[in-house]
Design goal:
The complex is a heterodimer of chains A (about 400) and B (about 550). Chain A has helices at about 50-60, 155-160, 210-215, 305-315; strands at about 30-35, 40-45, 65-75, 90-95, 100-105, 110-120, 125-130, 135, 265-275, 280-285, 295-300, 340-350, 370-375, 385-390. By secondary structure, chain A is mostly beta strands. In chain A, strands 3, 4, 6, 7 and 8 form a 5-stranded antiparallel beta sheet that branches. In chain B, strands 1, 2, 3, 4, 5, 6, 7, 8 and 9 form a 9-stranded mixed beta sheet that branches. The longest helix of chain B is centred in the N-terminal third of the chain and has 26 residues, at about 40-65. The radius of gyration of chain B is 24 Å and the shape is globular. In chain B, about 55% of the residues are buried. Classes of the chains: A mainly beta (about 400), B alpha/beta (about 550). Chains A and B meet through strand 1, strand 2, strand 8, helix 2 and strand 11 of A and helix 8, helix 9, helix 10, strand 8 and helix 14 of B.
Chain lengths: ~400, ~550
């Protein structure tokens, strides 16, 4: 498959008569910013002004399909800033109603640059905005000890805390207080700073006695090679982006709780988006808290290993192909202000289990992997939800 | 042009192992002049009482006894700004007095066991107060400068508001601003430029060393895998510093040694005989008793009085015994010093490095006996010729030809990556920061900032100051850690509101003097917030030769 980047302009070209479309005095700037998070993970945020989008659409040779925005991530060699010399790319469709998203790249570490662009019906890519090159962080080969103590003291709650009766002549013991030193934040999807790989509630620990063996015993997919649905180009042999060959030393580490597990998985269901004033969303009959600007994030750990494992296999296969519109029977997420996704993170500590991972998954130097994948609002893992949108004249609630 | 770091006297003795201990003192902007008392300001008071003053006392004691001691002490610019705020320091004195009154109240009313420990705390606070007022005359920096001039301490600094720089990679002006305003503020207050720069959260990305080098920095510290997974990885690992292509030295943390000093499960501070941190005396008092004990107001903010020892993981806590704890700290320090003794090596092998960076507040605030442990450590090392404490710069002098490489992007976060600061709880901050940077830049494009004393000049500088405060890594750290998340979010929203209002007023050319003055009173840090770094078109500082890529 020819490298699609060779046929397309790499850098956003200025529009005629406008040297820098992003900096007109009377308009907010368009921009794309990509922030590295983990060896596999990026956080991108952008602003695409309507003006820039309109002017781009006028230059697109064929009518662009709806939902045609995507972020193309270029994998670069050390010291190289030239996208034309990128040795791999990955495309990530972008939900047009949102201005930020996480992406999980196929190969950990290294340098990447990102371009936000539009893709027409023929698959041609029109770049709009480019973010500076960034370096994805490395995973330590052995997790480091925490530099800080468990800073889980809820001082604000204590300050606002309850009455105590007057002191008797001798001092009384403090009434029960939470086990602050070992408190876990139940809703956190990410481990606390206090410990490496400290198990969060509902973390599916590996049960070697039965469940996992059964799950992993199902045969891998059939031998016929499959087109990589992510339309990424494979790195050239020996390129820096290939996973580091693993030895058992590289797979050591993890928390005391997970020390014995050859494979761990943590899956989190994420529902997020941005609601306008007047919109109301209920997830399991509770409205999620909103942040400034109407943003919200609702997360729930997915409880058992088997479910997480099956999700991993399902979602690793089901990356969307950018040029193919979603099936008509599925509600198009681009019409909803909310997005449904799963985030799956795991670690392989026994090399024997590597072969069982879906082939789309690669691990970093610490044996960890990460995947973020959109799912349908009707996926079985998604709980009951209801959205009541602010009514435009004549419109009905969703 | 900046002043070069002063040369250091007494290069580290020819020991086989060099212990480069770095303590990093930092607190976010905590001042709340609008409140009679606040939890945030209590953090400053507790840090002064538990860490900074006891550390100074430790250094004084070592000097008095002629014990060879060396360490590097980083002080964040935002902390330095607060330590020279007379109003804040005045409130510290009131807090100290109130805590001492509470301790004496307990000493007079409690049973024998609690009475003794309360009396002990009262005496401790009394001594702290005397040091603060009489010995140091409320000027910690002057006292530290004295130790620095004698070579005992190497003073260093960090970003202006301790921003997590990898999260700002996409905005080079923001990175430059944080580094340069930080260095300039340090120089203004301390009187010299530092050679060592503390990267907040040890957050590093390739190319950052160019910004540091252009600003005159010579060395910085990293999490261990930042060095061990450098390109190419050094054969000696963290036992030597790593020389970056631009000549700066990167020091990698010694995890095994760190673990012994600070691990929630395995380290010294978790010993049952050490003082329990979480339980403050005020938690057990009724409102009326509190008012009687501590004077009018009856604040339930932490008093710093913790009468209990860790005892165990459960809720039952025994009374703290300072004598037992002191003996334990000495034993732990001696054990630790013994573990540092290197294995015999062939002659001419060169020294080995142990680089140990810690938050300064771990010693004394989180781990009450930490300063005692440090004191005992230096005394033990004085009797251990094969191990010598050294400042970072002294240690650097001992490595003539360190291995070369580009460090790996890394941090000392839980996974060694950047996820503790960039995650679902915190990611909403970064688009707003990006847009704030754009807005400030656009304002500067449209107009000259003007002299500082014009209302326009003041407003633009205040906006830049507020943006620096918004970039602090403390906010996402607190939000991700969960415990003070709402406080951090509230502070962020307040700062964003101030910034937006200032920019809107500037854009409309109708600055409201009252609002501007209120912002200046609330957030007075950084006389020069570094506007010139945001002028569009100005590239980040480059090293000689103009190379930007590692």
């Amino acid at each position: 498959m020819p490298n699609p980047t060779r046929q397309d302009p790499i850098l956003p070209a200025p529009f005629p008569g406008d040297k820098n479309p992003g900096t007109r005095d009377d308009a907010p700037e368009s921009y794309l910013n990509v922030v590295p998070v983990g060896p596999h993970r990026l956080f991108a945020h952008w602003r695409l002004t309507p003006d820039l989008r309109r002017r781009t659409e006028r230059t697109v040779t064929r009518p662009a399909a709806p939902g045609n925005l995507l972020i193309r991530v270029f994998r670069l060699d050390h010291g190289n800033d030239d996208l034309e010399r990128a040795h791999a790319t990955e495309n990530f469709p972008v939900d047009e109603s949102r201005a930020a998203a996480y992406f999980s790249v196929a190969y950990p570490g290294g340098f990447v640059a990102a371009v936000l662009g539009m893709q027409d019906c023929s698959g041609r890519f029109f770049p709009l905005l480019r973010a500076p090159r960034i370096a994805l962080p490395e995973a330590p080969e052995r997790p480091a000890p925490p530099p800080r103590p468990d800073a889980s003291l809820n001082e604000a709650a204590i300050v606002g805390g309850a009455d105590s009766p007057d002191l008797p002549p001798e001092l009384r013991r403090i009434p029960e207080e939470p086990a602050l030193r070992h408190a876990q934040t139940a809703s956190a999807a990410i481990p606390e700073a206090s410990g490496i790989g400290v198990a969060v509630p509902n973390t599916p620990a590996l049960d070697e006695s039965g469940v996992i063996s059964a799950a992993l015993a199902s045969p891998p997919d059939s031998a016929a090679p499959r087109e990589d649905p992510r339309s990424s180009t494979r790195p050239a042999g020996g390129a820096a982006a290939c996973p580091v060959p693993l030895s058992s030393a590289h797979l050591s580490g993890g928390s005391e709780e997970e020390a014995g597990a050859p494979l761990t998985l943590r899956a989190t269901l994420v529902i997020e988006g941005r609601l306008r004033s007047g919109d109301r969303l209920w997830i399991e009959r509770v409205e999620p808290a909103r942040r400034p600007g109407g943003h919200f994030v609702w997360t729930r750990p997915i409880g058992d290993f088997l479910t997480a494992w099956n999700l991993l296999r399902e979602t690793a296969r089901e990356r969307p192909i950018p040029s193919v519109p979603p099936p008509a029977s599925e509600p198009r997420q681009t019409q909803l202000p909310i997005r449904f996704s799963v985030e799956i993170e795991g670690a392989v500590r026994d090399p024997a289990y590597l072969a069982r991972l879906p082939r789309e998954i690669s691990v970093d130097a610490a044996g960890r992997f990460s995947l973020i994948q959109s799912i349908s609002p009707r996926h079985p893992a998604v709980p009951e939800w209801k959205l009541d949108r602010r009514r435009a004249p004549g419109a009905r609630s969703t | 042009m900046h002043k070069s770091p002063a040369p250091f006297k007494n290069p580290a003795p020819e020991s086989e192992r060099l212990l480069a201990l770095v303590l990093h003192a930092h607190l976010p902007e905590c001042r709340r002049p609008d409140l009679r008392e606040s939890l945030e300001e209590t953090w400053v008071f507790e840090a002064l009482t538990g860490s900074y003053l006891p550390l100074l006392r430790t250094l004084d004691g070592l000097r008095h006894d002629g014990i060879f001691a060396r360490l590097t002490l980083s002080l964040s610019p935002i902390l330095l700004e607060q330590l020279r705020d007379e109003a804040l320091l005045g409130r510290y004195g009131e807090w100290l007095a109130r805590s001492e009154r509470l301790a004496r109240y307990d000493a007079g009313r409690a049973n024998r066991a609690f009475g003794e420990i309360a009396e002990w705390h009262a005496e401790f606070l009394s001594e702290i107060r005397r040091m603060w007022e009489d010995r140091y005359r409320r000027d910690l920096v002057a006292a530290l400068r004295e130790h620095a001039s004698e070579g005992r301490v190497e003073l260093a600094t960090t970003c202006a508001t301790h921003a997590f720089l990898p999260a700002l990679q996409g905005d080079p002006a923001a990175v430059v601003s944080q580094v340069c305003v930080g260095l300039a503020t340090f120089e203004e207050i301390v009187g010299r430029r530092p050679a060592f720069f503390w990267l907040p959260e040890c957050g590093y990305f390739p190319g950052l060393e160019d910004t540091l080098g252009a600003a005159g920095v010579r060395a910085f510290g990293l999490e261990s895998h930042g060095v061990t997974q450098a390109r190419p990885p050094p054969a000696a690992g963290i036992r030597t510093p790593l020389r970056c292509p631009n000549g700066l030295l990167a020091f990698g943390r010694d995890n095994a040694a760190s673990r012994r000093v600070w691990s929630a499960n395995q380290g010294f501070p978790g010993h049952p005989d050490y003082r329990e941190f979480h339980r403050d005396r005020v938690h057990g008092l009724s409102e009326s008793a509190l008012r009687t004990a501590a004077g009018s107001g009856g604040s339930r903010l932490p008093s710093g009085l913790k009468y209990w020892r860790i005892t165990g993981p459960g809720e039952q806590k025994e009374v703290y015994n300072p004598r037992t704890a002191r003996q334990l700290a000495r034993r732990h320090a001696k054990d630790f010093a013994g573990d540092l003794v290197p294995e015999p090596r062939p002659d001419g092998s060169g020294p080995e490095l142990t680089f140990l960076p810690f938050d300064a507040e771990l010693f004394g605030h989180w781990w009450f006996e930490g300063p005692l442990w440090l004191d005992a450590l230096f005394r033990s090392l004085a009797e251990t010729p094969s191990v010598a404490p050294a400042t970072v710069t002294e240690a650097a002098h001992r490595f003539d030809r360190p291995p070369e490489g580009v460090p790996a992007p890394s941090s000392w976060g839980p996974r060694g990556d950047f996820s503790h600061w960039i995650n679902r709880e915190t990611d909403w901050i970064y688009p707003r920061l990006t847009e704030a940077g754009h807005r400030l830049r656009k304002l500067l494009q449209r107009r000259e900032a003007g002299p500082k004393d014009t209302i326009t000049g003041r407003a633009i500088r205040q906006a830049a100051r507020t943006l620096l405060l918004l970039q602090a890594s403390d906010w996402p750290f607190m939000m991700a850690s969960g415990t003070t998340a709402s406080l951090a979010a509230e502070e962020l929203n307040t700062l964003f509101s101030r910034f937006d209002r200032l920019c809107a007023d500037l854009e409309a050319d109708r600055i409201v003097p009252g609002h501007l003055e209120a912002c200046e009173r609330a957030n007075p840090a950084f006389r020069d917030p570094g506007l010139h770094h945001y002028f569009p078109g100005d590239p980040p500082p480059r090293p000689p030769g103009g190379r930007t890529d590692p």
